[in-house]
Structures are given as C-alpha cells and as structure tokens.
What does this fold into?
Amino acid sequence: MCGIIGYSGPKEPLPILISGLSRLEYRGYDSAGVALIDGDNLSIEKKEGKLSVLKEHLEGTSIKGNIGIGHTRWATHGVPSDVNAHPHADNANEFAIIHNGIIENYAELKDDLIQDDYSFISETDTEVVAVELSRKWNGELLDTVLDVAKSLDGTYALVVTSTKQPGTIVAGRMMSPLVLGVGEGEVFLASDSAAILEYTNKMIFLENGDFVEINDGNFTLYDIEKNVITRDIQVIDWEVSEAEKAGHDHFMYKEILEQAEVIERTIAGRIEENSTEIPIHLDKAKKFEKIWIVACGTAYHAGLFGKDLFEKVLGVPVSVELASEFRYREPIVGENDLGIVISQSGETMDTIAATELLKENGAHVLALVNVVGSSLARMADSVFYLHVGPEIGVASTKAYLGMLVGQLLLAKHWDSDDKLAVAFDEISDLPKLIEQTMACEKQIKDISEKIYKKNDIYFIGRGLDYALAAEGALKLKEISYLHAEALAAGELKHGTLALIEDGTPVIVTASQNHLLDKTTSNVQEVIARGAYVIAIGDNQSKKLENISDEYVTLPDSNEILTTVISIIPLQFIAYHVANLNGESIDQPRNLAKSVTVE
Ligand code: F6R
It folds into this structure.
C-alpha cells in the first residue's frame, strides 16, 4: 500500500520520480508528492488526487535537486488531502520524509512533541516522524534516523532526506517492503521493483531492520545498531514492457489477455518428474499430517481450489484459512503440518503474520508467491514462484490463474496413485485452452450490456465451481461496485433464494460434470423465481444450456482444467460491466494493491 520512489545519481531526479510514481500508482492513488533537495533548499510539492493532478501542478513549477523522493498514498491516518499527502516535513522544513506502514505509537510521540512546542499541520503518523527527526538531530542523518527508528512501534518503510546533510538519503524498513535498485553510479529506492525496472534489474530487497545510507549514487547497508551488513543483489528477469499497458486502456484488460502466455511460463520446467522447480517432492509431501492453506482475498479463493486437489492426492485434511482471521485464533498447528501461504505480492501483512504463526508452531511453510524476493518468499522454508510477471491492475487476474496452476502442478507431483492423472496429463495444453477461451469475450461483452445496470448479481457453483464463484463475485464487486454474492449452489434454498426475483442475474459455472445434474436442479430453482441465468460450461452440459438465458461454451477438456479456464469469462464479465459503468478499473475506489497494513 502506498508507493515509494527515491533517486540519487547524476540525472535530474524529477522525471525519474514521476515515471516511478506512475508505475506505482496502483499501490495507492488518493494523493501524491515529491521532495527534492538542492543544496540547502528543500522543495516539496504534493497534491490530493491521482498522480495526474500532481503532474499538472508540476508543469507550472521548476523544482530541481540532486536527490529526490516521491510517494503515492493510500490513506491510513487522515483523509486524502494536500496536507496529508507525503512527503512530510518538520517545522523548520529541513527534513523530508515518505513512509509506508503505520506508526502505532505516533499519538504518544505527538503529545510529547507538542509538550516541547512542536506543531503539526497534518493528521498523519508520518509527520510525527519528520518532527521527531528534527528534535533528535545529532549532526548526522543516518545516526539520527537510527535513533528515531528505535523509538517507533509499528511498521514502516521510511525514506528521509534533509537540507542539514544535502546529498544523502537514508531509508529503512520494518515489515513494509523496500527495494534498492543498483545502477551504474546511481541508486534507486522503491516499494516495488516494477517501479525502477526501466533503470536497473539489479535489486537488493531490504530485510526487516535493514537501513541504507545513500550518497551520490553509492550506498552502504546497516542494521539498526549501525553495524555494516551485506545483502545479495538479485537480478530480476521481468521485462519493462510487462509493466506497461501495451496499447490497452487498462492494465487489468492487458493482464487478462496475456494469461495464455504467462501460464506457459508458470508451467515451464515444472511438469517433468523430479523437476528441480518443484520445491517439495512426494517423499516429503507424504509425511505431512495436515495442510493449512492461508491467504487473503483472491489468493484465498485460489486456496479453496487447492483444498480439493491436495486432499485427493495426499489423503490428508486441508484447511483453507483467511490469514486475517487465522492470526487471531489459536489454530492447532503441529510440527508435521505443511502451511501453504499464497500471495501475489508476498507482502500482505496478514499473510506474513499467519506465516510467522505457522513457523512458530513448527510447520513447514511453502510460499506460492509472484514477486521475487518479497517478504513471504524470504520467510518461507520453500518457495514456488508463479512467474506471471508484474501484476499492476488492482483486481488480480493473471496471478489468480497462476495460483490455480501452481497448486495444480504441486498436486500433480504429489499424486502418487495417479488419482488425477487425466487432468495432470493435459496440463501442458492449458495455455492453448486459455487462448481458445478468450474467444468468449465478444459474447461476454453482449451479456455485460444486459446486466451492467443491475444492483445485485449472484454467482453460484458446486465444488470447485463454488471456489470460482467466490472469485467471480469479488472481481465484479471490487471494480464495478455492484453488489455481487457467491453461493455454493446447494445453499440457495437455505436463505438467499428469497432475494431472487424477476430479472435477477445469476451466473453459474458448471465445470464439474459429476455435479452437473445437481447444479442444473439449483438453476431450475432460480429460474422458477424469474432469475436471468448466465451459465458457463462445456459441450457436455446440454441440459443446462437449454434452460439458461445465456450459455458460454468453453473448449472441451477434463473437469479440473475446465474449472481453471472458467475464470476467464468471469474476469471478462467484471471488466466489461465495470467499463460500461465508466468505473476506474485499474484503481478502484478505497482499494490498493499489496495490503501491507492490518
Ligand atoms: C483482489 C485482490 C486482493 C488480493 C489480496 C491478497 O483482486 O487482488 O483480494 O488477492 O489483497 O493480496 P496478495 O495476493 O498480494 O497477498
């Protein structure tokens, strides 16, 4: 949440800050700002609203500097406004700071500073840190930042500059991501590697408690006690073009369309027996007594899909848990358990906390993540990267598909008795199937025209289709702001059927042929109450096709792969309904990519 960018080097910082911020805008977009230091002059420019507002404002200014920092905000403390936007300064306008995370003891610190006659203009926790830096100034920026950091409770990625030591940037992290980009004689800072990928692919992912001092394009890493530390430089193999829209109006749309290609990468080298790309092989997998799949949002929905697969192939109980709940109860996790944590960003605070809980209880933790070098990837005992490239649209699409396929690949390698061989033998066909499924877009666009003005839309399905329904409903509500609800199809008659009336859209996915008759009966129930039924299935679902108002036919495959490709029409429905309603698809209101706060 919130985007951070920083630059030290021979180039003019402002254009680098702005291009970095535009790549980071998906992380937060209620305000944005930059600070540049030119000798003893600190210029801070910040504006409420999207980055375009700041850009327009900057056109009339000529701020310069030899170092710069920038931020795009997702409000935690204080409403979105010019004043609450970052960077924040101290009372004398000598320190500029940007911050992601939450300083939990900011109110106490603020009271204490007010006692000492310091004043505040914003409602943010970040301004308190800026003012505290000036109170604690001890003649050296790094020392002062380390001193202040010791008094902070909570989470942060902090980046600080000061006219008292022009030419220096000091940054540090505790739970919020911070990446150092290492160029030739220049250094970049970012909350996300995609923001600086056009300048360098050499990255250092700071760990909790790491600090960095940057001077004239050089850097030194320290721990909080000022001991010099070293961290490996990782080379990121994402292409810059992957973080661009490729001529499309929205990242989400581009990310839906590129799924065949990216899933090819997820699969590459991971089908063959004994593939070294599979982090846990059958001999080890067989020993686990229980599996906990823990994740949030879309990643949680992907976990619902994995439950059935892992239970079938390993014959052990699998519990799928919302990370935000799991961390606050006392789950009975044992040393012989496997925790599978799923996350696109690898930085979701709740999932990180759940991982800690799993590890403390002795479970082996396997992370399915997309972002290389992310916190979860580093914390886990084993990692399986999704390899779907940077996902910029706030509504997750290709990462979700990558999560399904990742779990499918694991299950394939753990299927000792070939229970699901039919499905697994065809995994290499998936990219082709995904490509063929894209052909449904035109039909989905027409269907979207018919439903985009509705207030309530229901998604139903049984078994793996219920997991899909949950994701389809989330996708629709987060970008179109319509009320969408997912239900296990058999649950309708236990209450929700009361809400079905003439014309209510009900979207049903029917990939599970062995459940088809049951699902079809549930569809009959909603039809009898006047529902407008949109069904998604293959050629074998003739009965369902005949009774539905709309039928989206998927290419033929086995049940499991049919479930995987069924998400594509649901993604298109969400996209086109939101587009017809004129919503801000890549930056839905109130949301941000990468939820690094509780
Ligand atoms: C919805 C969406 C979110 C995320 C959730 C977890 O489209 O993207 O629900 O899935 O915030 O994020 P990650 O996967 O980064 O842990």
Observations:
- The pocket of fructose -6-phosphate is lined by residues 296-299, 343-345, 348, 351, 395-396, 474, 478, 594-595 (CB under 6 Å).
- The chain has 20 helices and 25 strands.
